[in-house]
Amino acid sequence: MKQIVTSAIVLKRINYQEADRIITVITKTDGKITLLAKGVRKPKSKLAGGIELLSTNEITFIAGKGEINTLISARLEKNYDNIIRDLSRTQSAYEFIKLINKSIENDAGMEFYSLLESAFEYLNDQKIGLDVVRIWFGLQFLQLMGHSPSNEILIEEAEGSNEKKNYRFDLDKMSFAPSESGSYSPNHLKFFRLSLINEPVQLQRVVDINKFLPQTLSLVQALMVTSGFNKV
Amino acid sequence: MKKILLVEPDSLLAKSYSQYLINNGFSVKVSHHVQKAVDEIDTELPDVVILELQIASHNGYEFLYELRSYMEWQDIPVIIHTSVPIHVSSMNDQIMKQLGVVSYLYKPSTSLSKLLYAVDDSLTVSKK
Amino acid sequence: MDDNKQGVNDYLLRTVVEQIKLPLIHIARQAEIAKDSSAGVDPESLSALSEMAIKLIDSYFLSLPDPNQVKLALEPVSLSSVLQTAAYNLEGMAKLYNCEIQLRLSGKFSPVMSHRTRLEAAFTMLGFAFIESQNQPENGKKSQVYLTGYKTAQGLAGGVFSPQLEMTNESLKRGLEGLGKQHQALPELSQTTSAGVFIADALLDNLAAKLRVAHYRKLSGLATTLLPSRQLQLI
After folding, report:
1. Each residue of A57-78: b (16+ CB within 10 Å) or e?
2. Closest approach of chain B CAs to the CA of C227, in angstroms?
3. Do A61 and A85 meet the contact criterion of CB atoms below 8 Å apart?
């Protein structure tokens, strides 16, 4: 039987029978899969403690006939221990995990592995603000799920319209629209566009970033909820 | 006799709290670490968990999310009893409900009798 | 004082204040138990806890830069004697936490040029941080914390060690960067703010000594290297 080796991040664990666990992971090469870890709840199991949450693990498994594959071994690749130093970052990491687990089917979602791995890297970096990571993750997630906001107005603004306009966000059309009573300035739109196309490391360098973070985060949360997902 | 799992990393505090709870008619098991706490629940289901958020190696949030990922452990009420003030913990009503946290107690301002009251209250609510 | 140092001091103060909550909570809850039951308060534990809180505050003040910028007067100090004093200071807390303090001194040491009070405070603070973090061994035995002095190529190393510590210099550095900003700056060591480590770091910094992760005979710990006094070597 062919053994498959890949990198994985744990999404969920449940107990099975006396000594086993069923572990749902997202993998680099096979997307979301379910693994049976036999005997892992026995104290002397070589798998006990080998597959950790909030980390990337190298796993070896055998493909099962049905949905459940069998885990042979697991080795820690990278532990994001900076995340657990901060309760808010820990909480966000778990919310990201839950969101991905709920949103993708088995054997799908390889692209979500990169998203989650990158999210862990950014959460692990204390120099990147938590809200920056949450905004970035929310927008990347929406794009992967096909719920990306419209780029039209964002591109117009980026091309440097000199008019001093205000904007509101139309949740039905998933786009910004000019509005005298709108609460978003052209700079908000620029920041939003940057958030769609840049990594958090670049975003963090935006001058006066704290002016844009609260409203942008609220908007991203609203987009998540409107699209049927939990907030990040 | 109702069973409490006390997840408390400080052995001295754990002694005080468990002594008090035992004196008030509970059976108490203490875990100083998250993984041991999970193993403990695996061995014997508690009626309520009292949880410190600040634990070495793995924090209380990790325990909570781990606990709630098991279908058979959804109904165990959790009382957070911690040195972390709620406004810095990022805990809010929605997350508390989601994670089955029935109360958030800040250690410096929680007397033992207040803790006991919260335990009794959680057992009453879970009966319903 | 420059702004950067002031910032660090503010973070250290915040960490110390968080840390002091712990012995005070202990004392308050013990008093509550005593009120509630016929069991009296344990005077030994009250004494150890209050002493710890006092030493924490005192060591923090010692670590602050002198507002008059008076240069620190260094003197020849015996590392063995300093570690013995620190061990004595830690006895009460160690007993409470079912921990055994062991002194390990490898050979005879020349005196080092340092400041006795600060050095004693630094090792005492490190010791506190280690004691409160100890896991109780499952066989019911006491956990062990070692106050250790040994010779290295660079000088005399003194530190606090345990068989259980899994920390790297990288994680110590991250912890120092997270001082006052993270709830658990050193989660590999302790569930608390590990104020003892940061106070020790500040005290050693005053003495131009650096705190680092060290390994010695199957033990891991936090140590510093002190230079032997050349004056006395010339005598």
Report:
1. bbbebeeeeeebbebbebeeeb
2. 34
3. no
**Which of the residues in chain A have pLDDT under 50?**
162
Cα three-residue angle C96-C100-C105, rounded to 5 degrees: 140
Task: Give the H or E element holding residue B128.
Answer: none
- Model confidence at B3: pLDDT above 80: yes
Tell me the count of B-C CB pairs closer than 8 A: 71
What pLDDT shows up at residue C235? 45
User: What's the average model confidence in pLDDT over C31-46?
Assistant: 82
A192 neighbors A154 (Cβ within 8 angstroms): yes
Kindly list the partner chains of chain C, i.e. chains with 3 or more CB atom pairs below 8 Å.
A, B
Span between the terminal Cα atoms of chain B, in Å: 18
Residue of chain C whose alpha carbon sits nearest to that of A85: C184
State which residue of chain C sits closest to B23, comparing Cα positions.
C37
- What is the pTM (predicted TM-score) of this model? 0.84
Structural domain count of chain C: 1
Q: For residue B55, what is the nearest residue in chain C, using CA coordinates? A: C191
Which CATH number covers residue C159? 3.30.565.10
Q: Please provide the size of chain A in residues.
A: 232
Among B122, B101, B54, residue whose Cα is nearest residue B82: B54
What ipTM does the predicted assembly reach?
Answer: 0.87
Q: Which of B84, B79, B26 minimizes the C-alpha distance to B55?
A: B84
- Using the Cβ of A211 and the Cβ atoms of chain B, whether some distance falls under 8 Å is answered with no
Alpha helices in A30-150 (DSSP H): 87-103, 110-124, 130-144
Domains of chain A listed by start with CATH number: 3-79 (2.40.50.140), 127-226 (no CATH)
In angstroms, the CA C22 to CA C46 distance is 13
Compute the average pLDDT of residues C165-194.
83
Question: To which residue do tokens 């670590």 refer?
Answer: C63
The answer to which of A101-105, C41-45, C192-196 has the lowest mean pLDDT is C41-45
The separation between CA A17 and the C-alpha centre of its own chain, rounded to angstroms, equals 31
Q: Which of residues 30-69 of A touch B (CB under 8 A)?
A: 41, 49, 53-54
Residue B108 burial class via C-beta count within 10 angstroms: exposed 0-12, middle 13-18, buried 19 and up: exposed
Range of the domain at C29: 1-235
A84 touches chain B (CB under 8 A): yes
Largest CA distance in chain C: 65
The domain total for chain B is 1
Q: Which residue has the higher pLDDT, A51 or C82?
A: C82
E strand or H helix that includes residue C38? none
- Provide the residue count of chain B: 128
